[in-house]
Specification:
alpha+beta; Alpha-Beta Plaits; 4-stranded antiparallel beta sheet; 4 strands; 48% helix
């Protein structure tokens, strides 16, 4: 079953529930993905079920990729796809941490500017 999809031209990442925890599937799935015309590299993480491929935009056919996953029984019924717990959870954690870091940096910058402004004003008054 497909849990999550992220795509930008030249790079495609999916999370496959069936791959998660299956160390024995990594080598064979990697070889299958590399045999798809236009796929330059494939990276698989059995811990999360994540599959990332980099491909040549002018050669790669997305339909061939989906068909290969279907043939290998990595895709279940698309209507029963879940919301992508492992990969989305990881992304949500990173996004949350980045947001907190951004807020902390912005707060520190504003505090620094206020301190400098107050110091400048005090120097003018003295």
């Amino acid at each position: 079953m497909l849990l999550h999809l992220h795509h930008v031209p030249g790079r495609l990442r999916v999370c496959l529930e069936r791959l998660r925890g299956d160390l024995s599937a990594v080598a064979s799935l990697n070889a299958e993905l590399l045999s798809i015309p236009g796929v330059d590299s494939a990276s698989l993480n059995p811990r999360t079920g994540s599959v990332t491929i980099y491909y040549q935009r002018d050669v790669f056919e997305i339909g061939t990729f989906w068909e290969r996953l279907r043939e290998l029984d990595y895709l279940g019924d698309p209507s029963s796809a879940e919301s992508g717990v492992p990969c989305r959870l990881k992304e949500a954690t990173v996004t949350s941490a980045a947001s907190a870091l951004g807020e902390a940096l912005a707060s520190a910058a504003v505090k620094h500017l206020i301190d400098r402004s107050a110091w400048s004003l005090l120097k003018l008054l003295v």
